[in-house]
């Protein structure tokens, strides 16, 4: 079976060394020494000012909304994993969907300004597939209308824009360290800020709003454990070689696929990509389904990522509306995009086999006249 992704695991002895230390200290969670060490190493690796290691990539979005006191309308993308929208809804916000760009599938800044109302408080954008949004345009709009900017940067670990970690942009930026990501801690995530006061606020929010018997604010349990931090400490030094291995497989696909009838989203100039995903777009949903069926015969499992367009889910409809907010580009792309398997030890022969099946199916589809 070849799945769309495969988690990388470090040497077991290396991980066990950290476990022995946990057993000796009997400090399992609650801001332990491995959590603090991982935070320090992540800050250094990413070149960011303040970073909090948390439970997962969804709760950090919720923390961002709470910390910025966002309770009303948030302009967001319909082309993302559902966690982006769920975090908004869970925190009582109203998602207002701006359509995406047809070239890179990130939120289209040209569609944002017309959606701003007196209730708009923030823009929450996703760097889709690890490729940066139009950061300067989004920030200019936010500055003009006094809005906060939150980036769901779940896919971006190790990727840079204009020489800086993509996580360094926006008022707050979040990342997922789920087992399927380029860098993982089995389960986990982080939230990044450039402001010291905000960092302290997030630190308190992450741990019920108190330290010992001193209470600072409301809070939630967003702490992560020493066991997850240990995995992160094993993984972090290997990220450059893992990205290099992903890049090699990405380029295998580029050489083997026939792009006369398919395409993949473009990478924004200035982005040093992390090769998190390999999405391809077909001429129709029918072709996509035929490709999936053909791959499945060979026990190859790609993923419709992202599908469906989030604005079409009935629980995301704006209050008082029984219909979706129209996002025609996202709705169209979501029907036709498929992520092919991509991970560091995917064999070149398997890449060639996958590409051959895709090419064969696409070539057999009659031209639309």
UniProtKB/TrEMBL annotation:
Q: What GO annotations for molecular function exist for this entry?
A: pyridoxal phosphate binding; transaminase activity
Question: Per its UniProt record, what InterPro entries does this chain match?
Answer: DegT/StrS_aminotransferase, PyrdxlP-dep_Trfase, PyrdxlP-dep_Trfase_major
Modified-residue entries (N6-(pyridoxal phosphate)lysine), positions = 181
Q: Which residues form the active site?
A: 181 (proton acceptor)
Q: Which Pfam families match?
A: DegT_DnrJ_EryC1 (PF01041)
Q: Which GO terms describe its biological process?
A: polysaccharide biosynthetic process
Q: What is this protein called?
A: Aminotransferase DegT
Q: Which family does the record claim for this protein?
A: Belongs to the DegT/DnrJ/EryC1 family.
Keyword set, alphabetical order: Aminotransferase, Pyridoxal phosphate, Transferase
Source organism of this protein record: Spirosoma pollinicola
List the PANTHER family hit by this protein, alphabetically.
Answer: PROTEIN RV3402C (PTHR30244:SF9), TRANSAMINASE (PTHR30244)
